[in-house]
Amino acid sequence: MSTSLISPAERGYIREGISTGIRNDGRSRQDFRDYIVNLDVISHSNGSARCRVGYGTDVLVGVKAETMLLDPTQPPNQGKVVCHVECSPSVVRRWDQRTADDLNNNLTQFLTRCLNQYGGIDLGKLCIIPGKACWVLYVDALVLDFDGNLHDALLLAVRGALFNTRIPELNVQEVDEGEFDFEANSDPEAAQPVPGWEKVPLCVTLNRCGEHYFVDATATEEQCTEAKLSVVINHLGEICAVQKGALGAIPHQMYADMIQSASHLVTQLLSALDERLQKEASTNLANQNGKHVSTFIRKNFH
Amino acid sequence: MSRLELLSPEGLRVDGRRANELRRIACKQSVLSDADGSAYYEQGNTKVLATVYGPCEPRNKGQALHDRCIVHVEFTVAPFSTSERRQRSRSDKRLLEIASGIRQAFEAVIISTTYPRSEISIYLHLLQDDGGNLQACINATTLALIDAGIPMTDYICACSAGYIDETPMLDLNHLEEASFETPDLTIAVLPRSGKATLLQMESRLPADRLEETLHLATEGCRQIHKLLDAAVQENTGELILKYANAI
């Protein structure tokens, strides 16, 4: 993805490390970098999270819930999820504008696919008045810093943000025969979590390098891989989406193996993430009386 | 009058501050790893992230100047930053205006002749908007430039002030800014010499009140300078410790 140059010697060194199973930073092929997920970063949104993988890749996701009047072209008893991913200009400066637009589009489509149809969120429950009004969840992701493995970081942050999201309660009143009116309850205690957030899938990207494949590539490692396979899997182990990236190909016999190990990794990743989210939410709650320290000012890694 | 009461009879504002009080400021340098310099700046609920790259070869080589560097500023607003979700295009005139204002202000303090034929890029992200974007951006940029080690003659500290109900008010928030007919003035000051590098005002203000309001804003800049300086010293202290441990 990156266009910066890498010398043949360095490429050889990294590939050698991958095939012997000890990478540049001491990880094995199946090891993830340490990551952090901070919740409630943006107080103006209904939910937000910032995910930072290693010291590099940094994704900020804000979720806004807004009511919308349904028009006849839409399904009458469903809400909507609208996704948008944007790489910050400081990230895209390594590419030209067109490559950056392509990347933004690809990531937006990828996220839309992951969240919309079988993405876990219960769209039926986002309907307010069938045929008239529904909730729209705007999931906006901002890539602040890049050091490889954007897809995985993106979905980690999105799951965190949806876990953190609270949708205000609505009081629906019948004003006239068949005519309804609704009003948001401003009490934050009455707000509800996103229906089905726990079913939102996670992604594991496997990078092929020779006969081996490895997870969580850094930006330099991504330059040495032949092909990437992003596998999106939910908590039941169902595969929700698969996307092959980068320029090379993946031999047929490798696929089954890759997908199997991806589903194994996602199960681990999911339980670890949910544990972190619960912990983070409880510390946030404890901090509410004291002063809330912003994620950018906190010392996250020790 | 049906207008929202911005100043209570007891002299308190909508968020409980007095007229001459700043919002809570929190800032930190070196928040991102990839950039040459970065800073996070928070003033009340307004949150800005600034990243600086450079000096490096200009991306558009035709723009290079033979005797000094060029400064490139880009300002983006996150769609979730405002209370209503709004997506802004890159060519939004309001954003371009802020970016060019910041560029002009900083071209005055960066010692640009040190880096001929090169470019310094400043990227600003508004993560949350609660009024006073311009001042927050300028203060964040100062921190990020210092973090990147770019030579400057002085800090630039910016502060806004307004004039509501016959009272000059420091550091307007979104509610105060958005209310009809509030004069809103932003000044950026070089704290050592006291000179202004940027001055913008919107709406009307009685001419004899300008002096008073300007004075209040400048006083705000002084306070902000102290806070920025403390953040820079803390960060430098940490850096020195890191180097000392590494040796």
Automatic annotation (TrEMBL), chain A:
Keywords: Cytoplasm, Exosome. This is Ribosomal RNA-processing protein 42. Its main location: cytoplasm. Belongs to the RNase PH family. PANTHER family: EXOSOME COMPLEX COMPONENT RRP42, EXOSOME COMPLEX EXONUCLEASE RIBOSOMAL RNA PROCESSING PROTEIN. The keyword Phosphoprotein does not apply. It comes from the Eukaryota. GO terms for cellular component: cytoplasmic exosome (RNase complex); nuclear exosome (RNase complex); nucleolus. InterPro entries: ExoRNase_PH_dom1, ExoRNase_PH_dom2, ExoRNase_PH_dom2_sf, Exosome_comp_Rrp42_subfam, PNPase/RNase_PH_dom_sf, Ribosomal_Su5_D2-typ_SF. It is found in: Cytoplasm; Nucleus, Nucleolus. One of its GO terms (biological process) is nuclear polyadenylation-dependent rRNA catabolic process. Gene3D superfamilies: GHMP Kinase, N-terminal domain. Residues 31-168, 200-262 form the Exoribonuclease phosphorolytic domain. One of its GO terms (molecular function) is mRNA 3'-UTR AU-rich region binding.
Automatic annotation (TrEMBL), chain B:
Residues 21-151, 154-220 form the Exoribonuclease phosphorolytic domain. One of its GO terms (biological process) is rRNA catabolic process. InterPro entries: ExoRNase_PH_dom1, ExoRNase_PH_dom2, ExoRNase_PH_dom2_sf, PNPase/RNase_PH_dom_sf, Ribosomal_Su5_D2-typ_SF, RNase_PH. GO terms for molecular function: RNA binding. It is found in: Cytoplasm; Nucleus, Nucleolus. Gene3D superfamilies: GHMP Kinase, N-terminal domain (3.30.230.70). CDD domains: RNase_PH_RRP41 (cd11370). GO terms for cellular component: cytoplasmic exosome (RNase complex); nuclear exosome (RNase complex); nucleolus. Keywords: Cytoplasm, Exosome. The keyword Cytoplasm applies. Pfam families: RNase_PH, RNase_PH_C. Belongs to the RNase PH family. Component of the RNA exosome complex. Specifically part of the catalytically inactive RNA exosome core complex (Exo-9) which may associate with the catalytic subunits RRP6 and DIS3 in cytoplasmic- and nuclear-specific RNA exosome complex forms. Exo-9 is formed by a hexameric base ring of RNase PH domain-containing subunits and a cap ring consisting of CSL4, RRP4 and RRP40. This is Ribosomal RNA-processing protein 41. The gene is SKI6.
